[in-house]
Amino acid sequence: MKVAALSLEQAPPISVPLRFFLSVPVFGVLAGGLLAWVGADALASRWTPAMLAVAHLLGLGVLGMAMIGALFQLLPVLAGVPVARARGLAGAVHVAWLIGAIALPLGLWDGSAAWIRLALVALALAGGGVLAVIGRGLWLARSQHASVRGLRLALLGLAATLALGLVLAAGHGFRQLPLPRVPWTDVHVAFAWLGWVASLIAAVALQVVPMFQMTPEYPPALQRWLAGVVLAALALAAALAPLTTRWIWALAPAVLALSLFAATTLRLLARRRRKRGDASLIFWRLGMASGLAAAAAWLALPWLPPAAGVDPALWPGLLFFAGFSISVLCAMLYKIVPFLVFLHLQQRIGASPALRQREFPPSMNAVLSPAAASAHLYLHALALAIFAIALLVPGPWLRLAGLTWATAFATLGWNLGQALRRYRAQQQRLDGLEASSGDA
Asked: Has this prediction a pTM greater than 0.90?
């Protein structure tokens, strides 16, 4: 199955995805800062207030922002369905999601029902808007490419994640509501990790890995059945959850399918046509290796003993969130953001008779330098290594890991900001050239 043809002429204004992408580093800095503030006490359990807050800063603020921005970009470009009034709609969704992604971690950290009620309203509005607009667009899309099918199933994963999350949050915001938190919290996590985050990453990877990394295509069989196996396993697990405590093993086919995706991606990256590597390539490799390690840690969880007061369930979480999801997110941002800047400047130049014959958009490396991306990569990898030490050895390691991670995300923010500044500078330069040409 070939990479899908892109409808680049239907790309939304660059401000639509960038407002989400530029929010990502802010939440990463907050998550790292909170871990540095709380220290090793956060590791006692995945249910500590600090760990719950960090998980939702990452899930909603880092991954959620990036993935919603990607959906607004991919729907018209990949699926060929433009979003009506994209700038205004994306702005409203962004503000509502921003409020929810701040309010919910605050409420979980300090136990404030008021913050959680605010988050319920904001996330319901933002999530409902995304599901309605993107879901309708994907339903209408004529493309049958595996990436589009994967996006449809990932959106179902988001719907289940959001519905379960809102119900569980309502139990915190309205404490008179009796809710069976076990097993539904774990079902919520399963849909969030496998049905939403991992499924969307896999769906997008089918397109962007061959396109940006110049690899062979993913095997057609994997493209056909990957998303379906993940969704079917999640549906079975959700059906079994009220009946047996062993329901979680129904997720094994999804975990194994996504492990096969990660292993296949590593194999394709080893066969890439462009031999010169960059930070994006290493982020991809780090992410896929971490994904395999997360799957192994999850399968071994019943036999992992607690060490030094650390909940062993944090190992799959660290490897999935920080190692797999955020590494892949960074790999994509370092290709997609420069490409968007190049694309929109190229379209601007091509539409102007005064510029068409004498101006060219800057290269992607000129928009966002490889050295700047590499600096972020080193900090990110160092933070992962220190996090791993913090889970093995008690002491101040978690504070150092949090500070290092906050610094890594601040570096990402600086790099993305540089790309935006260079885009604006080029736009101002083109404005000046067009004005001088008109005067002449």
From this structure: yes
How far, in Å, are 142, 153, 177, 205 from residue 80 at the CA level?
Answer: 8, 18, 44, 18
Confidence at residue 245, expressed as pLDDT on a 0 to 100 scale: 87
Between 113 and 309, the higher pLDDT residue: 113
What's the burial of 96, exposed, middle or buried (CB within 10 Å: 0-12/13-18/19+)? buried
- Report pLDDT for 60: 97
What is the 8-class DSSP label of residue 258? H
Instruction: Give the separation between CA 399 and CA 411, rounded to whole angstroms.
Output: 18
Going by C-beta distance under 8 Å and a sequence separation of 6 or more, which residues neighbour residue 253?
A: 229, 232, 233
Q: What residues pair up with 310 in beta bridges, in sequence order?
A: 307
Mean of the per-residue pLDDT values of the chain: 91
C-alpha span between 388 and 279 (Å, rounded): 22
- For the segment 402-420, the average pLDDT, to the nearest whole number, is 97
Distances (CA, A) of 82 to 11, 350, 394: 8, 21, 52
Secondary structure (DSSP) of 65-125: HHHHHHHHHHHHHHS--PPTTHHHHHHHHHHHHHHHHHHHHHHHHH--HHHHHHHHHHHHH
Q: Which is nearest to 62 in space by CA: 320, 280, 258, 338?
A: 320
The pLDDT tens digits of the residues spanning 108-163 come to 999 889 999 999 999 999 999 999 999 988 888 877 788 888 999 999 999 999 99
Predicted confidence (pLDDT) at residue 80 exceeds the cutoff of 70: yes
pLDDT of amino acid 183: 86
> What's the CA gap between 265 and 306, in Å, rounded?
32
Alpha-carbon distance 166 to 221, whole Å?
36
Cβ-count burial 243-252 (b if 16+ within 10 Å, e if not): eeeebbebbe
Domains and CATH numbers, the chain: 9-423 (1.20.210.10)
Q: Which two tokens mark 100?
A: 């929810």
In whole angstroms, give the CA distance from residue 167 to residue 162: 9
Between CA 394 and CA 47 the distance in angstroms is: 19
Convert the pLDDT of each residue in 191-201 to its tens digit: 999 999 999 99
Taking each helix axis as running N to C, give the angle between helix 146-173 and helix 65-78, from 0 to 180 degrees, rounded to the nearest 10: 150
Q: How many other β-carbons are positioned within 10 Å of the β-carbon of residue 284? A: 28
Q: How many other C-beta atoms lie within 10 A of the C-beta of residue 280?
A: 22
